[in-house]
Amino acid sequence: MRRVVKPREVRRAEVLDQALALFLERGYDNVSLNDLLGVAGIPKGAFYHYFPSKEALVSALAERSAAEAFEVLRPVFDQPGRTALERLNAGLAASYDVKMAMGAPEQIAAMTSLLTPHNQALFTRIVAIWEDLFRPVLTQLITDGVNEGVFDTFDPEGVGDMIQGFAARLQRNLVQLLDAPDAKARRKAIDDCVKRIKLHGIATDRILGLPDGSTVVLSRKQVEAMVALIQA
């Protein structure tokens, strides 16, 4: 039987799918390079043809998920006929729905070890992938808001970076919830997380020159839904 040779990008996508499934099953630190080779069914040389390292594969997964989210969210941030604040709030609200649909909580649970000191560089790289992709959209949106007289800031790009920094911090807060030893401690951790989200919302309002409560933040119910999936 003639061997079917798949296009490089098709095979690369398959390896990413197989690796993600393994990370979700076992957790990032519990998957070795040999495990990845075994599930992909390829020799080490072929794996390195696609990804120079396990860390490069994780970066590729982050790039893919960020691109998929960006494809859905950019039209929301760019909606014509709406004010900059309406577009920002629509985009922030849609971000939660998109990430839930993409399985972000489960992926956070699988990648908790990325927050340990020895994986800090890789986690920083993943955050940067998302921020670099969305920065131009947020910068333009905030610039539009300044021009409309809706926002008041002298540094639209810097404000966008701060908003994205709050989102990255939320991911850390959610991971910390996993360390809660019992239901009481978990409720306290959720309380603290919701309080911090409220603070981030007020900070966003103030750096945009808006009244407190103007921008959308996650509700307690939404946080609990994410935590439930992370712990599943």
From TrEMBL:
Keyword annotations from UniProtKB, A to Z: DNA-binding
UniProt DNA-binding residue ranges: 32-51
Coiled coil: none
Species this protein is from: [Mycobacterium] nativiensis
UniProt keyword annotation of DNA-binding present: yes
Protein name stated in the entry: TetR/AcrR family transcriptional regulator
PROSITE patterns hit by this protein: HTH_TETR_2
Any Pfam family the entry gives: TetR_N
InterPro entries, alphabetized: Homeodomain-like_sf, HTH-type_TetR-like_transc_reg, HTH_TetR, Tet_transcr_reg_TetR-rel_C_sf
Boundaries of every HTH tetR-type domain copy: 9-69
